[in-house]
Amino acid sequence: MKNNANVCERLRYYVMKKATIKDIASELNISPSSVSRALSDGPGVSPSLKEAILNAAERLNYIPNSSAKSLKTMKTQTIGLIVSDIRNPFFLDFMSGIETVLFPRGYKFIVCDIGEDFEKERVYIKWLLEHGVEGILTSPSQGEDGRNNSKLYREAVRRNIPVVFYDRILEGMERISSVTLDNRQAILQGVLHLRDNGHEKLGIVLHKRGIYTIEERLRGFKEACNMLAIEVNEDWIIENAVDAERASLPLESVLKSDKRPDAIISTNQFLNEVIVATVRRMGLKIPDDLSIVGFDDHSMNELIDPPLTTIRQPVKDIGRIAATILLSEIDGTRGEKSKVVLKAELLQRKSVSKLI
Amino acid sequence: MKNNANVCERLRYYVMKKATIKDIASELNISPSSVSRALSDGPGVSPSLKEAILNAAERLNYIPNSSAKSLKTMKTQTIGLIVSDIRNPFFLDFMSGIETVLFPRGYKFIVCDIGEDFEKERVYIKWLLEHGVEGILTSPSQGEDGRNNSKLYREAVRRNIPVVFYDRILEGMERISSVTLDNRQAILQGVLHLRDNGHEKLGIVLHKRGIYTIEERLRGFKEACNMLAIEVNEDWIIENAVDAERASLPLESVLKSDKRPDAIISTNQFLNEVIVATVRRMGLKIPDDLSIVGFDDHSMNELIDPPLTTIRQPVKDIGRIAATILLSEIDGTRGEKSKVVLKAELLQRKSVSKLI
DNA sequence: TTGTACGCGTTATCAC
DNA sequence: GTGATAACGCGTACAA
What we know:
By secondary structure, the first copy, chain A, is α/β, with parallel strands linked by helices. Chain A is 45% helix and 14% strand. Mean pLDDT of chain A is 92; it is low at 1-13. The structure holds a DNA duplex.
């Protein structure tokens, strides 16, 4: 008899793929609602019954169907994370930061790599909205012509899907929280450090123009130079260095010209690498022939030759704070929108020469 | 009159949050079925009606509810990606690789960072199953005692949720596809290169014992040494170097002993950095005092002092292939399970001295 | 404490 | 080509 039951059970185990609360209910000759109550341990179910239900659920390999749950409750315990370009080392610590906040709360995240393409971003936002994410963490991109996805983000907000910008913002969207770096102060620190060491012929290499972060860094650069009475040479401002080629080629030509800068400020980790590689390839010595101030601080900046003086942003904190804000907005416990601005710090290493 | 209609529309726009196919249907005085057919552009709906429906959908800011859709179809267009530790630079190119495969097919992915914790992995697998992912890409972890989540992965497979291992596998699960590196050959290349340069006192630093990849690399190391008649000194095998401290401390003591290796093989990017930093802190010169062969090849290995000779694995390919296999198993177009093994290549730079 | 009945938004199966 | 109806699995108001 027992054997027979075993056979039956194993048979059912293989035949019917997934157990539902109905299966548990009929197994125990009770109603599905009791099962539902027991599993979501709400009140109104006797301890003995509850235990029986939990046992049966275990035995039947019951796994809840969150699609059904979501359909009912409009909650998916999922958020969307839109990243500008996943190959940026920035996202290692950043994701680690948000994960530490999301996991304890039972939230998952969907990663959307838009590769700086705002059309792709559009597609991903739609997918996220369809999917029913409860919030979106995003570093928005822009088209060449300055177009962006503000309309779609507004649609999200209208649907009560909170959006939080990190790293970048979309100007004109004041009602969306953001966690950013004080980019001007960051660059100012770099410029100050260079000036203090006697450098006044300063160049800067920048990623795609139009992106908020980049514009801020450029503005910060010009402001700092003005403040310190350093002449800004527009030829030494290298823009739209979006890939290795578009960074190294212009940099090379600038460094070859007879009127050339004696220091270069980088504006992200990828550019750090390209700049160092380019300079080295040209046979120039760092920092004797050229001083360099890096940005973003991958752990390896310490190990390169020479150790790279770097403007470090608190990447993991950005992730943690952004995720925390998003969750509190999802909870609805936050009325005001937050605009958190974090400070960068300068890590002095060996890539800036002392001229004075 | 027109004005009035506008007001109505704007009112409805703000009052009713989300339009459903029913709203579109009643707007056009047709049935929801036709709307469904039109939107999923199936057959059986006249072109004129279809256009009207598409227009109305646009006008009402209709966004499909995939929870409802999933409930019906059991398809979520979502897969789960389980990563051992998201801070590993490995995952930059890896994720980029899988994204290029998933995006064109309309698939999203949920990232689950288990931080080498198999209990956390357990939780995440359950969440993924509940969520209704159509497949799982995973690099499984193990507990101290060798316990792992094979049971849960089997449950996924039983539910027709394909699982693909990448980087690591769980031994004894032959019916699951995998994309891995030929770890033995990889290490063999490193050992060969060292031997060719006259090094026969070889050490190796390894991450957590028990993990498939690590065991293979250790096996490969011993095999290679045996093959080349190099004596293996167990003291020079540093195991369980799971964080900076547990790598640098034992390494330091090994290097301080009077019987010390003259070359060290690293087994991941994180360890590359720790090893170089430790050696440098001890005041040893690379490669004169100690030769180093790195692993994994972050782009910055080229820039460190000295440029690091590295065993490079084709990370992006691993991602692409794993995602491709997973999708084909989801499609059900693949009967056989695939076991793809990729080869590493040795990038010779300057961190190995020539003794002969 | 427990059970009944309904609906969430969608697709699929029928009729017409 | 189109519309009515049922069902997917779950939560919940309400009745018992």
